[in-house]
């Protein structure tokens, strides 16, 4: 877009934000601009400036605009292989981990017209039984489009909409009413539909399974981070989130761990302390879009620290351990949130519990020198520093344990004791080695960052392609609907033509219909039998140019009188010879062909054959 067009587009977004609370800044700009441009063209204007004026004059246009922007492309059992995996592998595990009698809460975010919510109900009913679903399952279907939610509440779908439902499930869970299919009422009570803005409204809590399929891809990365933080707050510990095929969570490993990447199923990573969860949710405010990015930067900086580091909360719970610490001391992601004293690292390779108590009570750093750590054939010597972490009010909130690798230093000290004269040479070699290691580490870090950037660009491109695919699917459905309507009209027209042909064929008289230019439009079978010319031979031919054994020139003036309205009808008796060479007398009736507006568009000739006695010739 040119700069003026860009300014007008921004003005339109500001107007939508002020008048209807629609925050366009959270959506991907190319997709949002493309969808709005489609609506601009639909109402017959050319620029966003003109469309803004149109919106102010026609407030009912908001509904059509939001229906265009919020693409409601959905369906039953969409991506059938992913649903098959969920039913056969994932859901049985989820149900097995649930305590008997506990309620099962499912959230279908961005449910559009409800097919996804009803799909998960059918799948659960197959696994648990319909009665258990009614008693124990509650499904929440939410969307920002009120019109789509009304369709979801009606639970009535066309034959085309349910064509992906397996026949056995269609018969079991739907009632057919004419050409429509209605979802069973007894199961429908287990789902609640409501309007919900993923960016502004409070998330639903205590969720066991969250379905958000091909919804995140419409939002930019900052908005996606805010939404996923809210989802993390909503889900129970160990709960699952089921995404669409165009969506991945590479940048949110601190909150979600993959269960099956192919089918986009993730599990919530061990829940943080309640205060930290509240702070995480607070970072999702619209005015603090950069907070998740800063949090990721802090996490990345801690993760890339070369020295193993461990953070323990004041209550003795393990909060975090960076990659070197996890690798060296066998700490798993699942250990986060456990009591530190229950872990091997608390007493091996050295006793840390007493040092931690000393550091907390004295509020000073406690050092433990020359700690040997043997992992397989790899032996390392560390200097361990236990440092108390203080809050703003100088109260102790936790402990940081840092392992400084002094293996090479101790080796150099031993060599120094053995050969002092090689000190200078050994120092230079060590310095050179350290510089090479740092250079290599910087190069590797740069390569990793480039790969992460490339991966995010590819994911963004994939999401954009999926968005365009859904737009094309929506347009294709509209074209199918119009094609069905044209096909229906064509069938009606063919039936009418066939009926008219049967009428003409049933008449005993020869029927000829001509237009104002004397061109033949209708030539029935009786005419063909009488004069020996087929309908395709005379179609659009000039009546007076035909040589059929009848004095057609005598009809010129009577036809003109009827065409001009000078005479309502005319009747003549003409002599002629039929196709068999038999002399006949023909009674010719000329009447006007009136159109819908009562104007005369041509004439109808009715010719009745009358026998002529032998020996008489015209």
Key attributes of the depicted protein:
alpha+beta, 618 residues, 7-stranded mixed beta sheet, 22% strand, Beta-Lactamase, Chemotaxis Receptor Methyltransferase Cher, domain 1, 20 helices, 45% helix, single chain
Description:
The protein has 618 residues and is an alpha+beta fold. Among the domains are: 3-69, Chemotaxis Receptor Methyltransferase Cher, domain 1 (Orthogonal Bundle); 305-406, Beta-Lactamase; 419-467; 504-611, Beta-Lactamase (2-Layer Sandwich). The protein contains 20 helices and 20 strands. The protein has helices at 3-20, 29-42, 48-57, 61-69, 80-97, 115-128, 130-136, 146-154, 167-173, 185-188, 221-234, 274-282, 291-304, 323-329, 353-362, 407-418, 423-506, 525-531, 535-538, 556-564, and strands at residues 104-109, 137-143, 156-158, 174-177, 180-183, 191-195, 207-212, 235-243, 256-260, 265-268, 309-313, 318-321, 366-375, 378-390, 396-405, 510-515, 520-523, 570-577, 583-594, 600-611. A 7-stranded mixed beta sheet has the order 6-2-1-7-8-10-9. Strands 12-11-15-14-13 form a 5-stranded antiparallel beta sheet, sandwiched between helices. Strands 17-16-20-19-18 form a 5-stranded antiparallel beta sheet. A hairpin with a 4-residue loop joins strand 16 and strand 17. Helix 6 crosses helix 7 (130-136) and helix 11 runs antiparallel to helix 12. It is elongated, with a radius of gyration of 41 Å. 26% of the residues are buried.
């Amino acid at each position: 877009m040119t700069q003026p067009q860009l300014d007008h587009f921004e003005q339109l977004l500001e107007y939508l934000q002020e008048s209807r609370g629609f925050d366009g800044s959270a959506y991907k700009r190319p997709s949002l601009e493309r969808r709005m441009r489609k609506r601009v063209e639909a109402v017959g204007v050319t620029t966003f400036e003109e469309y803004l004026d149109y919106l102010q004059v026609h407030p009912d246009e908001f509904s059509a605009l939001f229906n265009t922007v919020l693409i409601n492309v959905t369906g039953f059992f969409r991506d059938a292989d992913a649903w098959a995996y969920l039913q056969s592998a994932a859901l049985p595990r989820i149900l097995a981990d649930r305590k008997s009698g506990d309620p099962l809460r499912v959230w279908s975010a961005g449910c559009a017209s409800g097919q996804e919510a009803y799909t998960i109900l059918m799948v659960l009913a197959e696994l648990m039984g319909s009665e258990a679903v009614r008693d124990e399952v509650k499904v929440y279907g939410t969307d920002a489009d009120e019109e789509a939610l009304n369709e979801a509440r009606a639970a009535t779908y066309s034959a085309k909409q349910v064509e992906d439902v397996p026949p056995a499930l269609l018969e079991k869970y739907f009632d057919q009413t004419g050409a429509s299919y209605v979802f069973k009422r007894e199961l429908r009570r287990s789902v609640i539909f409501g309007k919900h803005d993923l960016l502004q409204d409070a998330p639903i809590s205590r969720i066991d399974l969250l379905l958000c399929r091909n919804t995140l891809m419409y939002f930019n990365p900052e908005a996606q981070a805010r939404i996923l933080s809210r989802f993390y707050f909503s889900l129970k510990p160990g709960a699952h989130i089921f995404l669409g095929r165009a969506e991945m969570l590479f940048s949110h490993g601190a909150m979600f761990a993959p269960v099956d990447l192919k089918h986009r199923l993730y599990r919530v990573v061990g829940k943080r302390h309640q205060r930290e969860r509240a702070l995480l949710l607070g970072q999702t405010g619209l005015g603090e879009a950069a907070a998740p990015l800063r949090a990721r930067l802090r996490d990345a900086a801690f993760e890339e620290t070369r020295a193993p580091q461990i953070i323990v909360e004041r209550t003795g719970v393990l909060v975090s351990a960076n990659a070197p610490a996890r690798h060296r001391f066998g700490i798993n992601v699942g250990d986060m949130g456990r009591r530190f004293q229950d872990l091997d690292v608390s007493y091996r390779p050295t006793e840390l519990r007493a040092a931690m108590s000393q550091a907390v009570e004295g509020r000073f750093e406690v050092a433990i020198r020359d700690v040997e750590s043997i992992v397989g054939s790899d032996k390392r010597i560390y200097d361990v520093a236990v440092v108390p972490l203080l809050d703003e009010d100088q109260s102790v909130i936790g402990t940081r344990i840092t392992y400084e690798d002094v293996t090479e230093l101790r080796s150099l000290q031993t060599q120094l004791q053995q050969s002092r004269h090689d000190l200078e040479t050994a120092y230079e070699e060590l310095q050179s080695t350290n510089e090479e290691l740092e250079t290599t580490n910087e190069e590797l870090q740069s390569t990793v960052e480039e790969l992460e950037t490339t991966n995010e660009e590819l994911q963004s491109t994939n999401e954009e392609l999926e968005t365009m695919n859904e737009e094309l699917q929506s347009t294709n459905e509209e074209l199918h609907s119009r094609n069905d309507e044209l096909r229906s009209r064509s069938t009606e027209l063919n039936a009418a033509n066939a009926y008219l042909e049967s009428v003409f064929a049933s008449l005993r008289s020869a029927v000829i219909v001509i237009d104002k230019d004397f061109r033949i439009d209708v030539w029935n079978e009786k005419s063909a039998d009488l004069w020996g010319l087929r309908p395709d031979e005379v179609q659009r031919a000039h009546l007076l140019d035909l040589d059929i054994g009848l004095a057609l020139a005598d009809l010129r003036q009577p036809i003109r009188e009827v065409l001009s309205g000078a005479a309502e009808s005319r009747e003549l008796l003409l002599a002629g010879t039929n196709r068999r060479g038999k002399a006949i007398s023909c009674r010719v009736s000329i009447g006007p062909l009136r159109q819908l507006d009562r104007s005369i568009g041509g004439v109808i000739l009715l010719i009745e054959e009358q026998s002529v006695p032998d020996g008489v010739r015209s």
